[in-house]
Each structure stands twice: as C-alpha cells, then as structure tokens.
Amino acid sequence: MIMKTGKAELICTGSELLEGKLNLYPPLFHARLAPLGFTLAREQSCGDSLADIADCITGALRRADLVLVCGGLGPTFDDLTRQAAARALGRRLVSSRHCAQILALNYGLEKLPPNLKDQALLVEGAKALENANGTAFGEVLTEGRKLLVLLPGPRSEWEPMFGSFLDSEIKDFFKRQPLTQVKLRLAGLGEPKAEALLKPAMRKAPELRYTILAGPGLIDFIIAGSEPAAIKRAAARCRRAAGAAFYGEGDLTLAAAIGGKLAAGGRTLASAESCTGGLVSKLATDVPGSSNWFLGGAVAYSNAAKTRLLGVKAATLKKHGAVSGECAAEMAAGARKVFGCDYAVSVTGIAGPDGGTPDKPVGLVWFGLAGPGKTRVFRREFRGGRDYVRARAANFILDELRKIIK
Amino acid sequence: MIMKTGKAELICTGSELLEGKLNLYPPLFHARLAPLGFTLAREQSCGDSLADIADCITGALRRADLVLVCGGLGPTFDDLTRQAAARALGRRLVSSRHCAQILALNYGLEKLPPNLKDQALLVEGAKALENANGTAFGEVLTEGRKLLVLLPGPRSEWEPMFGSFLDSEIKDFFKRQPLTQVKLRLAGLGEPKAEALLKPAMRKAPELRYTILAGPGLIDFIIAGSEPAAIKRAAARCRRAAGAAFYGEGDLTLAAAIGGKLAAGGRTLASAESCTGGLVSKLATDVPGSSNWFLGGAVAYSNAAKTRLLGVKAATLKKHGAVSGECAAEMAAGARKVFGCDYAVSVTGIAGPDGGTPDKPVGLVWFGLAGPGKTRVFRREFRGGRDYVRARAANFILDELRKIIK
Fold it and tell me: In terms of CATH architecture, what is B180-249?
C-alpha cells in the first residue's frame, strides 16, 4: 500500500539563514505536516529580497499543493513576504481595518502609526491568522486547488498557530486522509543503538513511515501512517522493544516525565550543578507547574560556593578535587538537605574547551543522585563541544533520576 | 557603488533533510564562500529524485553564477546527482578510465565491478575533483560564464576539497573580490527601535547590505560589503547610533561581554533566580572560562529555598509576596553575601502560563541588582509565552548589569 500523501514545500526567508545561522525549521515543519498527510518535497531558504521570495513562491506553487512561507512579516524594511506573495499571485495588498485595530490594541496605541501600517496589510483574498504570541498576522491564501500559507518567523509565534487553527484550515481545504503519528520519546541511548533495537519492530509494519530524531542523549522516534489501528500496534511493539529507554509520548519532555512521577507521589526535587551551570534546573523549570515538585537548585561553580551552599567538605575538595565522585556525592546529599527535598541530583565535570588534564579530560563528568536510600554516583566521559557535553550531562542525570523514582 | 559579490546557490540532496534531519551545511558553505567573494543567495534541500535534483540545478543555474550541489554521488540506487546534472545541462555521462583506475585502487581491486561503475561516470566536460577521504569524485563543470560544482555529501569529504583545490578553481574562474562582514550586537531594544536608531547611518552607505536579527531583548545587526574600509566606517557610525545598546561585535554573547568587563576588573558575579529557574546562570556558564568571574547561583523556586539559601525574610514574603521588589532586593543582596561576590542579580516573576492574578499578571517580573553601591530593583511586564518571558527576563537583567559595571 502506497501512502497517498500530499506534496508540501517550505520557504524560509531571512538573509541570516544564508549568512551563518542554522535553519532549525525543516524538521519542525516536517513533524507538523506529516500528521496532516503531507510530505515536505522541497525546502528553500532565501534572503530578504522581494524578487527572490516571489520567485521561490512562484516555483513552489507550480510544484506543490501546499506552500508554507516562514518569516518576513515583521514591521521592518527587510520584511517583504506579503509584497512577494502579492507579486507571485498577481494580487494587490489591501489594508485590513480589523487587523489594524487588533495591532493598535497589541501595541497599546490608540491608532496605528505609519511605520506599523504595513503589518495591517493582507494579500487580496487572504484570511488573517491571529498571532497570540506576537504582532505579525499569518495569512492563508487559496489559488485554485492550492494553498499558500504565510507565517511569522519566530517559532514561538508560528508553532502555536498549527494546533489553534492552521491544522483545521489545511484539513478542511484538502480533505485529505490525515496521517496519524505517534512520537515515542527515548532516553539514554544513541541513534545506532536505537535503530538496532527498533528495526525488528519496524520490519513487522513496513508500510508505515519511521523517523529517528537524535538529540544529546535523547531520541524521538516517530511512526506515521494513514491507519490509526496499525500505528497503535506498531507503537506498542516499538515501546516494548525500547524497554526502559522509553519515557513518554508526544511532546512530553524528560523533565516533565520526571515531574509527573514526582507530583504523583507527592515528592520533590532539587539540583546541585557545577559544569552544567543551571541547565538542569532550567530544564526542570521549563515545565509549567514545576513549582509543585521542583524546590530549586544551587549552581556552585566555585569551590567556595560548593562548600558554603552545599556543605561539601574542604577536605574532599582538597583530596579528590571538585570533579570527583566524592564531591558529586556530597553535592547531591548537601542539596537534598538544604532544600529539604526527597531527591537531589548533582553534576560536576569539565565541559571544556579548556581545563582538561590527562587524568581528568575535557568531557569527564561525575554525577550524584541522592534519594531516600543511599546516594549513588556515576562517571561518564562525553565527546563533543562544550554545549553538547553540558546538554548530554543534564539529560544523563535526569534519565538516571527518572529510572529510580518509583 | 553596487557590491561586486558573486551570487552562489547551494543545493543539498537527501530525503532525510526533509524528514527530520537538521541541515548543518548552509552555515558551513557560507563560511567557505564569503572569503571567495560569493554570497549564498539561495539554498534548496530536495529529496533523492532525479527530476527534483535536475529541476533544482536548472533553476539555480538560471539565477546564480556559482552552483554547488552537495550529496548524491555515492554508489547506491538513490545517488542520482550525476544523472540530474547531465539532464539539467543536456549532456551525456561518460565513463572516465582515469577515475575507474583510481576507484579500483581505492577499493583495493584489480578492476572496477559493475555495481561501482557509476562512480566512474563524469558529466561530459567535467573536471574530476579527487576525494582524499572517500570514494566519490567531485565534479567541476563550466556552462558559459557559470560554474557548477558537484560534491560528495559527507562533510569530511567535501570540506577538505575547498582548501586543497576548489578555492583556487573558483578564484581562477571568477577572478572576484572577497566579501567582508561585521556583526554588531545590541541589547535592551526591540526591532522597530533598533531600525529607527540605525536607519540614518544605513542611509549614509546604501551600497552595503544590512540585516537585523531580533532575539528576546537582543538584536544582531550585520553589515556586509566588498570594501573593508567602507564596512569599518559604517560599523563605527552604527555603533555610535546604537549608543549604550551596543555591547560587542561578532559572536560575543551578552554574558561574555559582562564576563570580559568583570574579569578585567577582577570582579565576580552570582545569581539568584526564581522564575528564570537557572537560565541566568546557564547563560553565564555558557561562556568558556566563566569560572574566573561567575561564582554560582541559587535557583530558589520555593519560598523555603528563598529563605534558607538567600536569607529572604519570612516577613517580606508574607507581606509583599515572592514576586515583589522587596523580595527581589533581598534575593540579590542575599546572593551577594552568600557567594561573597561583587555583583549579584536576582529575578522573581510569573512566567506563566498559570499563576497570574489581576494584581500580578503573567509576564510580571521583578529584578534586583546588588553591587558595591545600593541594591537596585526593576519592574517589567513582558508579553509572550513562558519561554519568551524567561529568556527576555534573563537578558534584561544581564543587560542592566552590563550597564552598571565600570
């Protein structure tokens, strides 16, 4: 059975994408479009030039059923997507009184000043998409049997539009069999290991589409297809194959999974960080409502801070150094005591790029995990840049914590 | 004077790029092409389809002087770039005896087996580029005054080709002036304000290219052109126009700028965070070598933690609440004391999505800034989702700190 998927194209505007900035969007749009029954057939990044954007749109509309343009709807001189779409479709731009009113309200002004009036322009025939997290409206345009969607550039602005109304706009227009998609979230294994574990399960349902997205110590495994029952069976098989690495489905983060378990048992957490410098507590507090289970954290970068805030003994630091199992254990136990919580995690290591020695190379990280029982320690060596080592370390200890919470 | 940079386009082949894999290449190619005097005018990612790749090449050759295609030169069925280039140019594929010999040698074989013979095919008129780190040859093709370059997909294979011979191939063919770029980093103003400030300076050198990149409370302003002296003058003008909002150039982050000032004066910093949950200390410790000036931070999410770690008075919390100027001031002063540092910043607010009241709405944040003089407090209301409010708040207090450090 061949899946009857529609053809979509993505256009990302912004000279920065051609001048050194990584384009993080294609995977995100892929994840949004697959459940709607669309595959991304091409992605184009182009600069902030009216002619270029218009040319990208013209080409994409010739080839694809659904064309999404992301970026270039802001209030400044280099925001030209509206004008480009109007040119590509041979339509005029019309000022929307309704949009102007909402914009004035958002800016807290009585009347829209001239420099912001462009933001109230719509391509003739467009339906405006409200933006709950910014000022630029999105626009949906139909051209024959094709759909053109203009979206604001920031992820925080365009992503919520899908769930709120764009999903149904697209579904209603194309009346396409939606693809069902399940995202399994795994921790503690790399891409090759995940693939090896999951391959037998994948072979049992070769008509489905599988995607592996690898992060630092995390794997998202996406199963997509047109038949919900088949997806459900495949997801169950893959979950079993993944075993203890599976921690949740959909958009649940590792920290949110931990929070759910902690909150269910009325238990609490704190962190004590050195080399991750606050990343563990940042990940915990990314979760809305985390104040119910996360009491706080100590970022003890200096030795004095480790002693003063967490009660790490000066003798331990002198004898074993700050990057040691002994120090990690005292950090975790100290955090558990000072915050008065059930669990505490600690991280101390050498994130690099400097500070490594033959004994303690860059990438070496010690972890502590204090709970109702005894305090455990872990030692790992990670390879990669400073950011990668820090992210990998934070995810590692969160995953170990997840596994011991009952 | 119009900039005499050449127009290049990049085509990345591989269905994985449209199914969840991040494309890391555009920034790398930008970095390779800029010194050769080329700007990347467009990037296209397309799947492993002969027709699609040929269509991408045809379009790119119509628009650009230099077209690079990356990927699809391997030995398997979905490697179709050679065939696509031949179709786009209307040329035949010819088997190269020379390439076949080298390939056989690389594979350690007497004679090339049939399944590998495709790899010895060159588009008619192509010059083969030797691959020191893999088996697939690159190809350079001229079509009138344009240059088409086919490169193997793995970075480890195509990147060394530039330094070894591709740089000189391109230079010799185009005889072009290289391009210079300066990035100014600004904090504490939004995109419209930045544009209004910088517009007069931009008008004085309209021949240069300007790009504004907006982050949460941060602006990157990029000036590019072919004449280093003109860029330098424009950068100086724009710096003056930006005034106190300018904090650095190039890839210097706000936290790194602060770190530089602190380290120069032998001074130190700590943080006390509630709603940002560790983001301030994460940003500080993102900076390599931050242990020289960042002593640590307390993430005091619960009231008990605020009292125990930072010495916030129970009476203050009772009378004014945790989200108040009084609490922010005591948090900052407490952090300064417990860490024994010169400066301490504090953040306490309501990041949302829940927890707001009419008096204290979601987005309300109080800040404290303790230094050698008196402790200051700031009150701001930010609009946007939880992540935005947190990022905006962290950048706000870092910027206020930057401004007071002598």
Answer: 2-Layer Sandwich (3.30)
Tokens (6 digits) for B355: 């927890």
Q: What's the fold here for domain B6-174? A: Molybdenum Cofactor Biosythetic Enzyme; Chain A (3.40.980)
User: Which CATH number does B254-404 carry?
Assistant: 3.90.950.20
Q: Which residue on chain A is closest to B18 by alpha carbon? A: A40
Of residues A14, A40, A299, nearest to B296 (C-beta)? A299
Distance in Å, alpha carbon of B41 to nearest chain A alpha carbon: 6
For residue A146, what are its two tokens?
């094709």
Closest-CA distance of chain B to residue A150, Å: 19
Do B136 and B32 meet the contact criterion of CB atoms below 8 Å apart? no
Residues in CB range of A386: below 8 A, 6 or more apart: A351, A352, A353, B286, B288
Distance of alpha carbon B116 from alpha carbon B131, whole angstroms? 16
Chain A residues touching residue B339 (CB < 8 angstroms): 302, 304-305, 308
**Which chain A residues are Cβ-neighbours of B388 within 8 angstroms?**
133, 156
Yes or no, beta carbons of A18 and B43 under 8 Å apart: yes
As given in the structure block, the two tokens for residue A111 are 């009347």
Residues of A in contact with B53 (CB under 8 A): none
- Residues A90, A85: Cα–Cα separation, whole Å: 8
- On whether the CB atoms of residues B248 and B227 are closer than 8 A, the answer is no
Name the amino acid, one letter, at A256. Answer: A
Query: In chain B, which residue's Cα lies nearest the Cα of A210?
Result: B19
Q: What are the extents of the domains in chain A? A: 6-174, 180-249, 254-404
Flag if B22 and A22 touch (Cβ within 8 Å).
yes
pLDDT of residue A3: 43
Closest to A225 in 3D by CA, of A241, A253, A205: A205
Residue A304 token pair: 């004095």
Give the predicted TM-score (pTM) of the model. Answer: 0.74
Residues in chain B: 406
How far is it, in rounded angstroms, from Cα A213 to Cα B19? Answer: 9
Spatial neighbors of B367 by CB under 8 A, at least 6 apart, are B328, B345, B346, B347, B348, B377, B378, B379, B380, B393, B396, B397, B400
Return the residue in A7, A11, A42, A348 with the most chain B beta carbons within 10 A, the one to mutate for interface testing. A42
Between chains, do A309 and B296 touch, taking CB under 8 Å as contact?
yes
Interface touch A15/B211, C-beta < 8 Å: yes
Angle among Cα B378, B384, B388 to the nearest 5 degrees reads: 75
Neighbours of A88 (CB within 10 A): 23
Q: Which residues of B touch A311 (CB under 8 A)?
A: none
> Do B305 and A296 meet the contact criterion of CB atoms below 8 Å apart?
yes
Which chain B residue has its CA at the smallest distance from A277's CA? B282
Q: Over 80: is that where the pLDDT of B356 sits?
A: yes
Work out the minimum CA distance from A368 to partner chain B, whole angstroms. Answer: 18
Model confidence pLDDT, tens digit, residues B239-279:
999 999 999 998 899 999 999 999 999 999 999 999 999 99
Query: In the structure encoding, which two tokens stand for residue B402, read together?
Result: 């930057």
Interface ipTM above 0.90 = no
Tokens of B153: 């997909």
pLDDT tens-digit profile of A173-220?
988 766 788 999 999 988 778 888 999 999 999 988 887 777 789 998
**Could you read off the pLDDT of A107-143 as tens digits, one per residue?**
778 888 887 888 889 999 999 999 988 888 999 999 9
Q: At A115, is the secondary structure helix, strand, or coil?
A: helix
Q: Minimal CA–CA distance to B159: which of B43, B45, B68, B53?
A: B68
B101 to chain A, minimum CA–CA distance in Å? 34
